[in-house]
């Protein structure tokens, strides 16, 4: 097996994982091949980062690469967002590395790949299963073997999907080390922090909670909320514009009548299915969700939830219909026999078809007669005594076994093409046979088999439970009528109430989002939300087995949020601020704690041994302003001004601050802890670089 195939087989999942890791630890793909071009925005520019453009063609190539690498298991819509974040990170770190002259030498890369702590994808590919140890010699041998194959597409994939990200992770770690190693806490600061950490305060106070005033008596206007936001603007900044929609839904999901109809259809087919002598043709003509696998599979490899019941079904009979997820299924027991647990074979493939790595389609590359002539030549060489692995190297078209003498070692049933599987598990060790599969013609020799288990050949006729046209039309008509009579927000609310429909509000929606939480994937609705103004009502939109009618409820512009956009969060905070003013102006009278206690009808309370490093105040909770007042020299033996805290208003009188060495740390330990904390904060360097970068995102023009 070649190094590329070994990695693809054992660590294919790591490619998309590389994107995710990149967002956290600087893996930025394709550093040496696609440096960004410094141009202005254009019709082919997806975005710019500090003047460096991301070209649409380059962006699409990366999306296609990761689609291929993940065999379509990751949705394209998810990849669009991931690849964008990925390329923004890539550009930012490349720009910084260029400024600093940071590179990764060939020697450094070799140390990373073959050193004591190789990347996970290397460990996956080259760990000896017998010893559990990373086989450095084998890894170096196979990497040396591919150095000259610069035009091989798989070699390019290896570079793009694995080597490139590893180089860039190393580059990022270098950049991170520069920042982290610059962290220094001077001795005087450590001494001050140690003294603070070893300090305790004693204080008395009077406290009036906000709950003493009913929420219903304190109304907060949008203007007052906006005033609160403006005073705390750093907490309510939007890096990009967002919008929200309010909406109602009309279900178009399959109902019990639809489910019964599918089950009834299968009942009608049951007798014909049982009588059929050609299960493959029968299933294909009935458009089954599950294609027929015309070979025996071991019981351990069958994952059906009701497999124990299926295994008791007599050969030639049909069980069902039964419910399996969202499908009704008929299962026919075609054959049953004992088979090995695993098989070891070697083979020579002369291909007639090659699979397109992007689409999965099989493209013809050789006719059958030409393939058989070539295979006959290979077989003749084997029978004349030429070593099998030498013939494999010359004749076989299977990249997955070409470098291992054509051997597939101890694989379970059900993993290969059905004809290949059938011979491997029903033949005997030592037997050879020419086997035809969708890929071409194989000369197969069974080298060995292990274990024994019952094997089953089962044909599944599977039909999904889908909504009928009547069900879908009914939901669509209801949504259409609602939308037609709800062209403003007042009518929308009135009609929803009349029809007993719940009006829901989405979380914030970004301009490049494809999915709206609660609604599902609907790029069209997102685009509509950004093309219209507040209060506009949409036409019905189909999304995830339902029809949605929505109106734009808020627009949060880039910059400081509007009160409408964060009302649920800000309203209680603004109300508490208003309550604090009422309490202070009405109740807090006097120049001593006793006088304030009398005016507020609250007792004087005490707190002892309040540590400077405390996060909470006993009986009060999270009130950092209280801790600040207790340690403030200006409040020693005198009361503070009224302070509006998180949960209420208080005045504080400090009795003094003292040191207690047993509760803190030594200066050396404090210095080490502070430096470690600062180094962890330095880990946000890339995030801060992105925040400071001039990023223009034009993806919505293309997707």
Topology:
Elements lengths: L2 H9 L2 H12 L11 E2 L6 E5 L2 E4 H14 L6 H25 L5 H9 L5 H7 L9 H10 L7 H28 L6 H11 L1 E11 L12 H10 L5 E2 L3 E10 L4 H20 L3 H7 L11 E2 L8 H5 L6 E7 L2 E13 L2 E10 L1 E3 L6 E3 L3 H16 L4 H8 L11 E6 L5 H9 L5 E6 L2 E11 L2 E12 L4 H16 L4 H10 L5 E2 L3 E2 L4 E2 L3 E2 L1 H9 L9 E2 L3 E11 L2 E2 L6 H20 L6 H8 L3 E8 L12 H7 L12 E2 L3 E12 L7 H16 L2 H8 L2 E3 L6
Antiparallel strand pairs: 1-3, 2-3, 2-27, 4-24, 4-26, 5-23, 6-17, 6-18, 6-22, 7-16, 8-9, 9-16, 10-13, 10-15, 11-12, 14-15, 19-20, 21-22, 25-26
Helix pairs in contact: 1-6, 2-4, 2-8, 3-4, 4-8, 9-23, 10-20, 14-15
Can you give a write-up of this model?
With 703 residues, the chain is an alpha+beta fold. 42% of the residues lie in helices and 22% in strands. Strands 6, 17, 18, 21 and 22 form a five-stranded antiparallel beta sheet that branches. The protein has a four-stranded antiparallel beta sheet with strand order 1-3-2-27. It has a four-stranded antiparallel beta sheet with strand order 24-4-26-25, with helices on both faces. Helix 2 (14-25) runs parallel beside helix 8 (153-180) and helix 14 (368-383) runs antiparallel to helix 15. The relative contact order is 0.14. Mean pLDDT is 88; it is low at 1-41.
């Amino acid at each position: 097996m070649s190094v590329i195939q070994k990695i693809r087989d054992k660590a294919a999942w790591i490619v998309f994982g590389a994107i995710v890791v990149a967002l956290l630890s600087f893996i930025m793909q394709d550093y040496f091949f696609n440096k960004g071009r410094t141009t202005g925005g254009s019709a082919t520019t997806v975005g710019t980062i500090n003047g460096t453009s991301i070209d649409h063609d380059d962006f699409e190539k990366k999306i296609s690469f990761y689609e291929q690498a993940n065999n379509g298991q990751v949705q394209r819509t998810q990849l669009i967002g991931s690849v964008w974040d990925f390329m923004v990170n890539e550009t930012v770190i490349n720009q910084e590395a260029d400024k600093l002259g940071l590179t990764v030498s060939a020697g450094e890369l070799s140390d990373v790949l073959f050193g004591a702590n190789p990347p996970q994808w290397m460990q996956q590919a080259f760990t000896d299963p017998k010893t559990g140890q990373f086989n450095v010699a084998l890894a170096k041998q196979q990497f040396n073997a591919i150095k000259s194959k610069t035009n091989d597409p798989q070699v390019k994939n290896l570079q793009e999907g694995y080597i490139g990200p590893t180089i860039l992770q190393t580059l990022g770690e270098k950049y991170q080390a520069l920042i982290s190693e610059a962290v220094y806490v001077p001795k005087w600061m450590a001494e001050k922090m140690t003294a603070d950490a070893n300090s305790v305060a004693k204080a008395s106070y009077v406290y009036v909670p906000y709950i003493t005033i009913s929420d219903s008596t304190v109304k907060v206007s949008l203007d007052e909320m906006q005033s609160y936001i403006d005073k705390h603007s750093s907490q309510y900044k939007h890096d990009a514009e967002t919008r929200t929609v309010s909406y109602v839904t009309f279900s178009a999901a399959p109902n019990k009548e639809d489910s019964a109809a599918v089950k009834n259809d299968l009942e009608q087919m049951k007798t014909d299915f049982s009588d059929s002598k050609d299960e493959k043709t029968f299933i294909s003509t009935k458009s089954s969700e599950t294609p027929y696998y015309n070979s025996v599979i071991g019981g351990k490899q069958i994952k059906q939830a009701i497999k124990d019941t299926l295994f008791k079904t007599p050969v030639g009979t049909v069980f069902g219909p039964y419910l399996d997820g969202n499908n009704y299924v008929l299962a026919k027991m075609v054959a049953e026999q004992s088979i090995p647990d695993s098989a070891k074979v070697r083979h020579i493939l002369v291909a007639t078809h090659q699979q397109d790595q992007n689409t999965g389609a099989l493209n013809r590359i050789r006719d059958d007669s030409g393939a058989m002539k070539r295979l006959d030549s290979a077989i003749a060489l084997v029978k004349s005594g030429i070593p099998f692995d030498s013939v494999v190297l010359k004749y076989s078209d299977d990249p997955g076994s070409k470098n291992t003498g054509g051997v597939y070692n101890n694989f379970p049933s059900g993993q290969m093409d059905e004809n290949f599987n059938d011979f491997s598990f029903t033949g005997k060790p030592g037997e050879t046979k020419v086997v035809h599969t969708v890929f071409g013609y194989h000369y197969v020799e069974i080298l060995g088999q292990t274990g024994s288990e019952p094997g089953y050949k089962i044909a599944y006729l599977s039909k999904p439970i889908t909504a009928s046209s009547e069900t879908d039309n009914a939901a669509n008509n209801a949504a259409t009528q609602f939308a037609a009579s709800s062209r403003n927000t007042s009518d929308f609310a009135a009609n929803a109430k009349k029809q007993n429909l719940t009006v829901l509000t989405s979380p914030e929606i970004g301009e490049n989002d494809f999915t709206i939480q609660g609604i599902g994937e609907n790029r069209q609705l997102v685009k509509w939300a950004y093309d219209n103004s507040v209060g506009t009502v949409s036409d019905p939109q189909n999304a995830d087995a339902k029809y949605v009618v929505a109106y734009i409820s808020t627009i949060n512009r880039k910059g400081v949020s509007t009160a409408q956009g964060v009302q649920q969060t800000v309203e209680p905070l603004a109300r508490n601020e208003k309550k604090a003013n009422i309490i202070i102006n009405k109740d807090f009278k006097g120049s001593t704690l006793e006088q304030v206690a009398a005016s507020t009808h609250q007792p004087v309370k005490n707190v002892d041994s309040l540590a400077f490093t405390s996060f909470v105040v006993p009986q009060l909770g999270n009130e950092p302003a209280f801790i600040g007042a207790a340690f403030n020299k200006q409040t020693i033996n005198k009361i503070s001004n009224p302070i509006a805290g998180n949960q209420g208003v208080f005045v504080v009188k400090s009795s003094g601050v003292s040191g207690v060495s047993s509760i803190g740390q030594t200066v050396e330990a404090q210095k080490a802890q502070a430096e470690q904390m600062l180094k962890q904060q330095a880990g946000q360097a890339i995030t801060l670089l992105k925040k400071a970068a001039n990023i223009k995102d034009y993806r919505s023009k293309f997707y």
